[in-house]
Design a protein that fits this description.
This is Helix-turn-helix transcriptional regulator. The chain contains four helices and four strands, in the order E-E-H-H-E-E-H-H. By secondary structure, it is α+β, with helices and mostly antiparallel strands. The longest helix has 11 residues, at about 65-75.
């Protein structure tokens, strides 16, 4: 799917790319933990810009488990229960 040179993925394509069930992608969209999405005119079709997916993936790339722990702690909202 392409629009003005921008590649888009459907929810099913994103699920396949990430190796998860489509319901996981839907949950990410509901709780805001997934990549940004676009709802197309008509309201039913949801697509993801490939560049947004790549940026979302890059933000979740780690060199070690300790780096992952540090990034997770920084991302936790202030005053959030541990």
């Amino acid at each position: 799917m392409s629009d003005r040179g921008t590649n888009h993925l459907t929810s099913a394509q994103l699920a396949e790319r990430e190796g998860v069930d489509i319901r996981t992608v839907q949950r990410w969209r509901q709780d805001g933990s997934g990549p940004p999405y676009l709802r197309m005119p008509g309201g039913r079709l949801v697509v993801y810009r490939e560049s947004d997916v790549e940026a979302w993936e890059a933000a979740r790339r780690f060199r070690s488990t300790s780096e992952e722990t540090v990034k997770a702690a920084k991302a936790e909202p202030q005053g959030a229960p541990a």
